[in-house]
Design the sequence.
């Protein structure tokens, strides 16, 4: 998948989507081989995208074993990690994406209703 | 290229990886455990990163071991800048594929945890970096940053445990740095995972002076020094001072070296022993520095190298002042035989002084060291600390066969032996300089209080600093006590006059007895003559008598013949 094309399309789609209240999502999921956890993450994000972002997203799945450079490039430590490259701000969602509500909040699809339990994140 | 791994004979099987850091390999008896992770803990600013980066740089430069630096805190650019001041060119090492610096940036606000995960990403990055240059050394600085980025500490701990096991499997020698904790060595108890070797660094401030110290908390399967070792981070990087690990088994020399004062050499029976330690103590102005300078001057004149630590005077001042007693130190500093290191004692803590001295001695390789004076060091430490530092210093110097002279300023009055007594026991030779005050004069005197292993004079000497150098004079010891200076001269004149008088008297008596003898002999001669004449007379009389008797007998015979006597 080329890098430039999605960027351009992103813009166009975002403008279009903004009118309709829908934004275009560029997602990159980094996994480490075909482990049950990787498979689960892939399944989870696919389902979630189809349910919430149908037609407004593109998803790239990267196997870090095959592209170890990506790990450094994307500052990846944990696996699996889903990177929301667009819309900004960039966010990283680590884990197998099984906690759907948290994923939706992390992607900015749902808004946080209550204060997060974690202490580190002071918003 | 040096041997990459040192094998320690008494611990077969445990291979060590030399760090290349000065002093460190000595206290660890060879370096870090090869192929295993080592944990380095310490508070902020105590030199963890420096230790880690120097381990890699020295490995790459001196042992040809490529290294990977995984930086969690600093960016590669910052790191390169920080170590450039130590003369390490990280960028060139990176270009030569001897080093990889990977910066791991963790932004907690960017991360959302959405289920189960592991740190395989980190493993992949590290593995990729190691494989890309065939790294043998790895540093992780500071891995605890992960704890701020991830909520699930259970996962994190499990993953760290796996990481350390994985590093072992990769057979890389690794340094993992961690923040010091309150109850555990590291804040997150990393020492539980890194069981082979734990090193604690510390930067303590006592009396406003900071001293860095290093301690090997544990080192599985290896002997190691147990103490806290002071260390320095200076223009040449990290250096640990392993002086406490020295034992009293240094070689001893019976070679004598001149003190620079001819009569003092005589008092010592030929000079100081090479490699011995000499203490020169005395109150202010008794000439301690002059004794020290003479010693330095004599050493340089023999073509030896001398390192002079001056805590009171600057180099220029020393050279000028010593010129007044005909000691030209300037020519030796120019020729490079003499090196001054003048500093105020308060610029460092004691340990730093020790470290600094150790480093300078190692670099300059002197035959002779002068510390002038050690008493000033007490201003930066307690007596006990100074004593322990000096003991270590002396052991170190002795081990290197360096003759060391220390001066010690004692306070006047009752406490004259308050400080030097504590250090005197570790000295081989002790000269005490003092004053004798009398007749409105102060005169310097020198006592040789002790000198181990040599016959030495027990006599006090008058110590004279003159335009042409230092002289020792005999003191006048008479019925009126020890006299020095003008009193000595007066007393000597007095004594000379009395002696002359006595000599004259004796001469007269000798002459008188001579005359008596002559008279006596004359008398004896006269008596003998008288006796002899009497003897002569006696002999003459006896002869006459005999002749007479004979004649008488003859006469009687003739008469009988005449009478026809029948009595025949």
Sequence:
């Amino acid at each position: 998948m080329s890098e430039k094309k999605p960027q351009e399309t992103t813009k166009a789609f975002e403008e279009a989507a903004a009118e309709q209240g829908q934004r275009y999502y560029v997602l990159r999921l980094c996994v480490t081989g075909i482990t049950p956890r990787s498979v689960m993450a892939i399944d989870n994000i696919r389902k979630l995208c189809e349910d919430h972002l149908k037609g407004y997203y593109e998803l790239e799945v990267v196997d870090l074993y095959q592209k170890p450079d990506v790990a450094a490039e994307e500052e990846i430590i944990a696996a699996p990690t889903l990177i929301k490259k667009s819309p900004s701000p960039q966010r990283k969602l680590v884990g197998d994406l099984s906690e759907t509500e948290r994923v939706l909040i992390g992607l900015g699809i749902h808004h946080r209703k209550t204060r997060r339990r974690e202490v580190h994140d002071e918003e | 290229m040096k041997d990459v791994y040192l094998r320690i004979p008494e611990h077969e099987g445990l291979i060590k990886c030399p760090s290349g850091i000065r002093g460190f390999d000595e206290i660890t008896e060879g370096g870090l455990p090869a192929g295993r992770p080592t944990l380095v803990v310490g508070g902020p600013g105590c030199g963890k990163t420096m230790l880690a980066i120097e381990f890699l740089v020295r490995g790459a430069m001196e042992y040809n071991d490529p290294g990977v630096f995984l930086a969690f805190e600093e960016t590669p650019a910052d790191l390169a800048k920080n170590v450039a001041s130590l003369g390490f060119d990280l960028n060139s090492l990176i270009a030569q594929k001897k080093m990889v610096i990977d910066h791991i940036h963790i932004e907690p606000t960017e991360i959302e945890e959405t289920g189960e995960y592991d740190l395989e990403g980190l493993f992949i990055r590290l593995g990729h970096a190691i494989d890309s240059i065939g790294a043998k050394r790895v540093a992780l600085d500071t891995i605890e940053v992960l704890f701020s980025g991830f909520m699930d500490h259970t996962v994190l701990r499990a993953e760290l445990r796996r990481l350390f096991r994985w590093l072992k499997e990769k057979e890389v020698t690794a340094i993992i740095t961690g923040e010091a904790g309150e109850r555990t060595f590291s804040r997150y108890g990393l020492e539980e995972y890194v069981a082979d070797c734990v090193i604690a660094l510390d930067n303590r401030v006592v009396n406003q002076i900071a001293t860095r110290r290093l301690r090997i908390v544990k080192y599985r399967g290896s002997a190691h020094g147990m103490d806290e070792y002071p260390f320095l981070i200076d223009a040449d990087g990290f250096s640990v001072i392993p002086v406490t690990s020295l034992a009293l088994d240094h070689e001893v020399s019976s070679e004598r070296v001149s003190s620079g004062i001819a009569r003092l050499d005589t008092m010592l029976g030929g000079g100081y022993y090479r490699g011995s330690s000499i203490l020169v103590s005395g109150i202010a102005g008794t000439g301690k520095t002059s004794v020290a300078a003479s010693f330095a001057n004599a050493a340089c004149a023999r073509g030896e190298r001398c390192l002079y630590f001056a805590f009171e005077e600057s180099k220029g001042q020393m050279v000028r002042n010593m010129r007044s007693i005909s000691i030209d130190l300037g020519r030796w500093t120019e020729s490079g035989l003499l090196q001054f290191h003048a500093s105020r004692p308060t610029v460092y803590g004691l340990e730093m002084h020790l470290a600094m001295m150790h480093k300078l001695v190692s670099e300059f390789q002197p035959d002779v060291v002068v510390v002038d004076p050690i008493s000033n060091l007490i201003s930066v430490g307690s007596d006990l600390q100074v004593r322990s530092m000096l003991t270590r210093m002396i052991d170190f110097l002795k081990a290197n066969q360096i003759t060391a002279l220390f001066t010690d300023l004692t306070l006047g009055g009752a406490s004259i032996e308050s400080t030097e007594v504590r250090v005197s026991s570790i000295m081989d030779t002790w000269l005490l300089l003092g004053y004798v005050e009398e007749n409105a004069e102060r005169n310097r005197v020198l006592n040789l209080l002790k000198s181990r292993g040599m016959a030495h004079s027990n006599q006090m000497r008058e110590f004279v600093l003159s335009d042409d150098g230092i002289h020792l004079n005999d003191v006048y010891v008479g019925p009126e006590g020890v006299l020095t200076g003008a009193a000595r001269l007066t007393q000597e004149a007095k004594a000379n006059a009395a002696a002359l008088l006595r000599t004259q008297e004796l001469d007269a008596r000798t002459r008188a007895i001579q005359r008596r003898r002559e008279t006596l002999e004359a008398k004896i001669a006269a008596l003998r003559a008288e006796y002899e004449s009497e003897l002569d007379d006696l002999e003459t009389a006896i002869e006459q008598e005999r002749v007479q008797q004979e004649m008488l007998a003859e006469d009687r015979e003739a008469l009988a013949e005449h009478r026809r006597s029948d009595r025949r």
